[in-house]
Amino acid sequence: MSGLRSKTVLMPCTIPKDKYDLMIEDLLTMAELLGMVADMRTKDVRAIQEFGKYVPAFAAFEKNRLSLYREAAKEAEDILTRWEDEIDEDDEPDEYFSD
Predict the structure, then answer these.
(1) Is 22 helix (H, G, I), strand (E, B) or coil?
(2) What is the rounded distance in angstroms from the CA atom of residue 87 to the CA atom of residue 96?
(3) Any residues with CB less than 8 A from the CB of 15 and at least 6 apart, and which?
(4) Beta carbons within 8 Å of 23's beta carbon, 6+ residues apart
């Protein structure tokens, strides 16, 4: 069987000229779309490479900011805990006056 090759027989196909023209137009449109997407993706890669150098600095900034928020929350909780035993709800005035 190694010496046998399968033969593909192409049957002549006739389509109307307007359908053929439409098919060619669609193929050209597809080629244009593929080229456009490939160009956009190439520009995306360049932008990612360019802005990628800022990502570590931004991540460090965000990490520092988050740790600052955590420290502030812990400090606020410590203050509330420190005064929890000193303050009763009954000690609060019925009315608040501003200075």
Answers:
(1) helix
(2) 16
(3) 23
(4) 15
* Chain-centroid distance, C-alpha 99: 50
Q: What pTM value is reported for the model?
A: 0.39
Residue owning tokens 């993706």:
41
Strand (E) or helix (H) holding 26 = helix 17-52
Secondary structure (H, E, C), 42-90: HHHHHHHHHHHCCHHHHHHHHHHHHHHHHHHHHHHHHHHHHHHCCCCHH
Question: Does 88 have pLDDT greater than 80?
Answer: no
Residue 95 has pLDDT above 70, yes or no: no
Q: What is the average per-residue pLDDT within 16-31?
A: 88
